[in-house]
Structures are given as C-alpha cells and as structure tokens.
Amino acid sequence: MSINQLFSSELKVVNIGLQSFRDALEAVKTPVVHVDWKPSMEVAPDALHILSAHRKEIDKANQKAMKLILSGQPQLVGMERAVDVVPGLKNDMILHAGPPVTWERMCGPMRGAIVGALLYEGKARSPREAERLAASGAINYSPCHEHSAVGPMAGIMSPSMPVFILKNAEHGNYAYCTMNEGLGKVLRYGAFGPDVIQRLKWMETILYPTLKKALSKTGPIDLKNLIAQALHMGDEVHNRNRAATSLFYRTIAPAVVTTCKDTKDASDVLEFINHNDHFFLNLSMPASKVTLDAARNLRNSSIVVVMARNGTDFGVQLAGTGNDWFTGPAAVPDALYFPGFTKADANPDIGDSAITETNGLGGFAIAAAPAIVQFVGGQAADALNYTRQMYEITAAENAVFQIPSLNFRGTPTGIDVIKVVDKNILPFIDTGVAHRKPGVGQIGAGVLSAPAEPFQKAYEGLAKAMKS
Fold first, then answer.
1. Measured between alpha carbons, how far apart are the two ends of the chain, in Å?
2. Do 122 and 245 share a domain, yes or no?
3. pLDDT tens digits along 329-347
4. Number of domains composing the chain
5. Quick check: helix, strand or coil at residue 159?
6. Cβ distance 180 to 316 under 8 Å?
7. pLDDT greater than 80 at residue 18
C-alpha cells in the first residue's frame, strides 16, 4: 500500500501502550484495538539472571507441584477442640490470619477478635482486661498457616474453639479451621460484644457436638466433589457459598436428625446452617489449604502455596522456599459498603481466605459467580475477564473445577510467581471488608488485586534459595 492510499483509507489502530491513547481515538470514533500489556515488574537483576538460567529445573519442579496439587483429595473427616489436634497450639497461644504480626502492629479488627477470644476463653472478664492481657506478652501469637490451619478475616483460633479436621486422602496431610459464625457483628470481623461470645459458646456446646456425631455417621465427606458442583451452581466458594452450603446441608442433615437425641438442638443446628450462606467458607478454605500444602518444600518450585493477609501485611509463601514469608502492605478493597459506611472506614485487606484464590477458586473462578462483581458495580463480562486474565499467571487448569460460562474450562490453578513478575499481572481476589476499628464488624464486601511487593520479594527469595 502506497503512502497516499494509507492516508485515504479508513484508519484502524492497534494501540500498545498507554490506555489514554485508546481513549483519545475512541473519542473521535476511530476504530482501535488496545493491547493489554505492561512491562515486567522490577526485580533485582541477579535474581532475574538466576531464575532465567535455571528455568528447566523450575519448570520440572512446577510440573511436580501441580501434579501434587491437582491430585489432592480434601475430605472432612471429623471435629475436635483446636488445642487437642492443631499442631503446636498451646493454651497460652492464639492463632491469627496472615503472616506473623505483633500486637503493636495488629489492625483494629484483629485486636478486637483477640479481645473476644480472651473473653470467650475466660481469660478476662471485661474487654479492657482482655486488651491489657493481650498486650502484656503473656499471650503468644502465631499465624494459622504455621499450624496447618486457616481462618477467615482476623482468623482467630483459640484453644477451646472447635475445628473441622480435613485430610488430604491422596497425600495424607491434614488441615484445620474453625466453624463459620455468619455475617455482620462476628468475631472474625473484630466484634466482641456479649452476643458474639454467646454465639461462640452455643457453637462450642451445641453445634460442635451435634456435627461431630453426625460426621461419625456420614464418614468422610468429599469436599472436592461438593466444590465442583457448587461452581456449576453459581458459587466461587470464597465470597459466594450459597450453593456449597446447601450441598453440605443436604449431606449432613439426615445424619444430624438421626444422631441428635434432642430435637430442639437438631432443629437449631440445621436452622443455623440454613441461615448462614457462608457456612461452607470454613470448609472451602481448609480444603484449599490441605490441597496446596502437599506441594510445600518442593525445591526449585515457583508455585505459590499461600496468599494471606493480617490486615496490616499481605504475605506470600512459595513451594520452593519452605516457610519463608514475603510481605508487603495490605491494600483496601474496592467495595460496596453497608449503609452509613465508606472506604474511609475500611480496614486494609485481611484474612486467610485468599487461600481459595491460591487454589484456583474465589476470584480466580469468579466467572462461575458473576453476581460477585455487583459488589463494585461491575458486569457479568467483567467476571469473565477477571478469570481469563488469571490463566496468564497460572501453571495449570483444574479439570475437576470447571466454569460453565467458559465452556466448562478448568479453573486457572497454581500461581507462578515468575509469570506474575514477567507479565505484571497480579492475582485477583474477592473479599469481605471489616471496619478499621475493633468491635464494629463487617461493613461491606468487594474486590482487589494483590499488592506487587510480596511477589517481587518472593521472586528474589526463590532466586536466593536456588543460588545457595
């Protein structure tokens, strides 16, 4: 085509660069296709060189990691008090969500949840006394993830709390999680009023023994199968668990009715689950944990096995770097807030529940649950785009967890920190939002992308591990 023909023809543009160039062309009705591309994240040059030179070893390790993860078989096998089964949990210890954090650096909702846990345990008689004890040094704090456990939002697990016991039937490892209290003013969002403690005591004395007996009758419950069904029914099992909770209800209800001698207790337990659409969250999280932990300590692997937030820091762990944490500041989600609250009231992102995204669920499977994007005024097409983008940074697809709206394509699974850095695409997470002050509770729900800093540090940490 000659230069004269070029300028006499309709202009069609492919834009690679700033989105504002596309916007300017669209404003004058010029056809334009925008290439969604960004330069790689900045990392230390020596780290880039080391990982590039060892790509074959990394790819081999990642193939092994994904085989372990995709073959995982999470099963609910029982319930016990946390102190009796959770590895390393002692009577003077409280577990929390996210990477390690001291009382001095803890956010408001985590402090509030710890106050509530101390009241629940009977270690303090008033919130003020509980706060003094929490700050005294007499209580040890440790991440749930360092004890084969997970917890939503503040993630608080104290010794007397009943926990679900999950076993990876394929690889033999275990994971643990407390039961879900519901939404609003609950412990995990930092509330600690008398109604919160009363509910926790009911869960300990009625809900727990009733479910424990029922599970002894049902035997192990295949959670992977329930999650797969729930994805076909509009859940992504992080911020939407209505279908999964219903499926669990159908599984457990007959056993509750036949094993609970007190009909009122049986009725109360079934009504509690029935009116708590998020009950299954505390099963999908440890199901993801027990699945991913099978790939821990796999030398040279760049696969992410933990994303977790404590309301102050966002932390990442890799299969190839053992128990090392790589952290950066947690961000505040974009959210739909309850009446009377705004983003100014919101605490930064908090909770272990991003373990679902790490396992190819939650925000990574949001195309299966487009209703979630309504939290921030989005459209169904946005949900499809979010999931499609996550395929760019993952190592495999989970053929069991399928997304109907993507022609039953498997969910994007196995976040590869090298791809995150190379493509400058960050994991997408949907989440609840807690008030930044202790005692208030949940104020909304929304979405956000993970911060870049933990992934840059994890990239460099893997290079350091491979160099040594």
1. 57
2. yes
3. 999 998 888 899 999 999 9
4. 3
5. coil
6. no
7. no
Q: How many residues does the chain have?
A: 468
* 130: enclosing H helix or E strand: helix 127-135
pLDDT of residue 371: 84
Specify whether the CB–CB gap between 224 and 286 falls below 8 A. no
If asked whether residues 78 and 57 sit together in one domain, one would say no
E strand or H helix at 48 = helix 45-53
Find the DSSP H helices in 165-296.
194-202, 208-218, 223-231, 242-259, 263-274, 281-292
Residues 12 and 141 occupy one common structural domain: no
**Long-range contact pairs involving 67-71 (C-beta distance under 8 Å, separation at least 24):** 68/171, 68/294, 68/295, 68/298, 69/291, 69/292, 69/294, 69/295, 69/303, 69/359, 69/396, 69/413, 69/414, 70/396, 70/398, 70/399, 70/400, 70/413, 71/170, 71/171
Question: Over the stretch 397-453, which tens digit does the pLDDT of each residue have?
Answer: 999 999 999 999 999 999 999 999 999 999 999 998 999 999 888 898 889 999 999
What is the distance between the alpha carbons of residues 348 and 436, in angstroms, rounded to a whole number?
Answer: 8
Asked if 134 and 268 sit in the same domain, the reply is: yes
Q: Is 277 in the same domain as 205?
A: yes
Ramachandran category for residue 30: left, alpha or beta (phi over 0 → left; psi -120 to 50 → alpha): beta
Judged against a pLDDT cut of 60, whether residue 7 lies above it is answered with: no
CA distances from 356 to 69, 188, 284, 307, 416 (A): 13, 17, 7, 9, 15
Per-residue burial over 329-350, b if 16 or more Cβ lie within 10 Å, else e, is ebebbbbebeeebeeebbbbbb
